[in-house]
Amino acid sequence: MGSALDEGALSRLDLCIGQPYGAEPRKKEPTLPRLFTQLWFLVLAAMAAGAALGYAAPGVGAQMQPLGDLFVNLVRMIIGPVIFCTVVHGVAAMNDMKRVGRVALKALIYFEAVTLLALLFALAAVNLLRPGEGMNVDIASLDSSAVKNYAETGSRSFVQYILHIVPVTFASAFVEGEVLQVLFVSVLFAFALVLTGERGKPVLDLVGALSRIFFRLVGIVMWAAPLGAFGAIAFTVGRFGASSLVSLGTLILEFYRSEEHTSELQSRFGISYAVFCLKK
């Protein structure tokens, strides 16, 4: 065998590296500026375009509402499956019923605690800063069905709230978009999967594969965010006027300020929770 590569090997090497062997590396062709391919930039650009459309043509801007609703529905569509696959795969992979039971109970407590913390921050922010002032919204023209579910939830007793955690059917938790019901079903399914033993391993592998697929789907759906932002801002400015952007901006700033404090508390609470979970 010689030290030099024969002609066939060189041709195969050329195919692998995409250029003649020993040639200078090719320079990449100039493409669109990287900034214009960033999702956050596209969202900001879409918001600016939506505000301009709502200001210049209020009637047309108000008709863009379905675009925002479409994106919200897309996000809601994948929340249930993502929670189910993540919880089932994470809990069932432990393969220890005692540990699964402890983690499941602590996960439910953690879910309720963080939800309560978020509600407290939201109530404090909306009462102190009153971000909806100045939007001149006619309450009579609003769709009351949008807040119907929240009003019904607030009127439930403690026993009704506990009973509501259990869905009517296995699939209704996903159809109705009840996150707590999806979490309950996921934990229950994970328990059953652990009890199945080795015969349930193909199902566990399938859930893991589905989890990766759904997270890919999340990435695809997020590219519709500019379209949703465009429709939502165009509708808001077209229906309520350009001054509504000031109220929205105040709300966004307060959200990020609250998010910083909430993240700090949640991280501290999460570390304590993780240590608590790992204790035997």
From the structure above, extract its key features.
single chain, 280 residues, mainly alpha, 12 helices, 73% helix, 0% strand, globular, disordered N terminus, disordered C terminus
Can you lay out the helices and strands and say which pair or pack?
Blueprint: H1 7-17, H2 39-56, H3 58-62, H4 65-92, H5 97-129, H6 148-154, H7 158-165, H8 172-175, H9 179-196, H10 201-222, H11 225-240, H12 244-278
Helix pairs in contact: 2-11, 4-9, 4-10, 4-11, 5-9, 5-12
Helix content: over 70%
**Number of strand elements:** 0
Please describe the biggest sheet, giving its number of strands, its sense, and whether it closes into a barrel. none
Strand content: under 5%
How far is the N terminus from the C terminus?
62 Å
Rg, please? 26 Å
Task: Describe the structure in brief.
The protein has 12 helices and no strands.
Question: What would your notes on this structure say?
Answer:
The protein is mainly alpha-helical and 280 residues long. Helices cover 73% and strands 0% of the residues. The chain has twelve helices and no strands. It has helices at residues 7-17, 39-56, 58-62, 65-92, 97-129, 148-154, 158-165, 172-175, 179-196, 201-222, 225-240, 244-278. α4 packs antiparallel against α10. The longest helix has 35 residues, at 244-278. The radius of gyration is 26 Å and the shape is globular.
